[in-house]
């Protein structure tokens, strides 16, 4: 069966989590000979750092700016036979022969955003979900959110396909590149954006309370307000910021940290959790949502968004080498379940279900 992949996300991001997910899927699809593949692509896609790694033939549609195209549902019009249309970001095909698949990553906008951007995003997502024949959710928690918000959805056509994690993360990887200013196990690491629901403030307060360093990775440059907040809690020699680093660099920072502190109130999946575990880094996270689902067996889940509670958790379990080693082993075992190959295989299984159902009719 023919599959049309809508690569719109490569034009919306230069990098980012959804770009990673889409890249890992396409990389493996291009090696698969079972399906007839086609791609839609738009202006700016080649600026995406993950798209640059792929060699694909695309149908490029450049009639309108991406800022407009991103909200339009394309008409492919290439075949008179049923085909799968899988978009990277909340679009469906208007072709009568299209079998639409939507991947739902989270409901962050619905839960934590406000204003016109929320209204536009939620309208587009709702339209895509309601017009889709099949839906993929990246976690059971995201699926539960979906069914709560869209109770009329056919549950039999909603699938959970967990995200994976790069094999570049490894606790035994020897690397002499990027190093933090802090000694091994003398800092916490915080990875990702710093939106309000991420509770970055708790990472700062926990590091201060434990008199440990804090390494801040990704999420763009600190804003003026963020700089003020950081410096009001930590002295300048107690934190360090890194941007646009490689997997090897991040692996090094993970493996030398006392732990990843991940105080987010909500995640659709939480890839840094698995990255850290694969690198042999314990993870401290909130005991709820996808974090609880993804992190596996660990005593490092907190129930209250309270820095002293988080500090006590770290002191109770990570200042003792035997306890910490056991948590690292548990994390390594848990992270082995999440690979991009498995993500690909489960996605292919859904494509095969669709293909077989159409052939049987």
Explained architecture:
The protein has 14 helices and 13 strands. It is α/β, with parallel strands linked by helices and 361 residues long. The chain folds into two domains: 2-164 and 340-360, Rossmann fold (3-Layer(aba) Sandwich); 187-335, Glycogen Phosphorylase B (Rossmann fold). The strands form two sheets. The protein has a seven-stranded parallel beta sheet with strand order 3-2-1-4-5-6-7, sandwiched between helices. A six-stranded parallel beta sheet has the order 10-9-8-11-12-13, sandwiched between helices. α2 (17-29) crosses α14 (340-360), α7 packs across α12 (307-318) and α10 crosses α13 (321-335). It is elongated. The relative contact order is 0.12.
Tell me about the biggest sheet? 7 strands, parallel
Radius of gyration, whole Å? 21 Å
Q: How many β strands by DSSP?
A: 13
Instruction: Please give the alpha-carbon distance between the first and last residues.
Output: 14 Å
CATH class of the largest domain: Alpha Beta
Q: If helices are DSSP runs of H or I spanning 4 or more residues, what is the number of helices?
A: 14
CATH architectural arrangement of the largest domain: 3-Layer(aba) Sandwich
Class from secondary-structure proportions: alpha/beta
Key traits:
361 residues; alpha/beta; Rossmann fold; seven-stranded parallel β-sheet; six-stranded parallel β-sheet; 14 helices; elongated
């Amino acid at each position: 069966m023919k599959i049309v992949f809508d690569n719109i996300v490569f034009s919306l991001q230069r990098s980012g989590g959804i770009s990673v997910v889409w890249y890992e899927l396409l990389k493996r699809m291009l090696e698969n000979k079972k399906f007839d593949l086609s791609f839609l692509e738009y202006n700016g896609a080649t600026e995406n750092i993950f798209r640059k790694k792929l060699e694909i033939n695309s149908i490029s549609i450049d009639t309108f700016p991406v800022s407009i195209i991103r909200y339009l549902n394309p008409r492919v019009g290439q075949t008179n036979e049923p085909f799968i249309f899988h978009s990277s970001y909340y679009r469906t095909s208007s072709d009568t022969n299209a079998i639409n698949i939507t991947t739902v990553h989270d409901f962050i906008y619905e839960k934590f955003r406000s204003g016109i951007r929320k209204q536009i995003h939620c309208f587009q997502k709702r339209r895509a979900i309601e017009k889709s024949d099949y839906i993929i959710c990246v976690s059971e928690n995201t699926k539960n959110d979906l069914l709560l918000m869209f109770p009329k959805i056919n549950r039999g056509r909603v699938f959970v396909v967990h995200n994976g994690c790069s094999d570049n993360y490894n606790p035994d990887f020897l690397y002499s590149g990027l190093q933090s200013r802090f000694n091994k196990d003398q800092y916490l690491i915080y990875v990702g954006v710093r939106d309000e629901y991420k509770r970055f403030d708790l990472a700062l307060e926990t590091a201060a309370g434990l008199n440990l360093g804090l390494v801040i990775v990704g999420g763009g440059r600190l804003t003026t307000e963020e700089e003020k907040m950081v410096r009001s809690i930590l002295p300048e020699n107690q934190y360090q910021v890194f941007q646009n680093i490689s997997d090897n660099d991040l692996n090094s920072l993970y493996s030398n940290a006392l732990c990843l502190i991940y105080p987010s109130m909500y995640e659709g999946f939480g890839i840094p959790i698995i990255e850290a575990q694969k690198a042999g880094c314990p993870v401290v996270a909130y005991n709820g949502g996808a974090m609880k689902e993804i992190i596996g067996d660990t005593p490092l889940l907190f129930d209250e968004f309270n820095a002293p509670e988080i500090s006590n958790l770290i002191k109770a379990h990570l200042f003792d080498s035997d306890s910490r080693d056991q948590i690292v082993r548990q994390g390594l075992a848990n992270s082995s379940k999440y690979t991009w190959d498995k993500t690909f295989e489960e996605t292919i299984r859904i494509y095969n279900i669709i293909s077989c159902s159409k052939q049987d009719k």
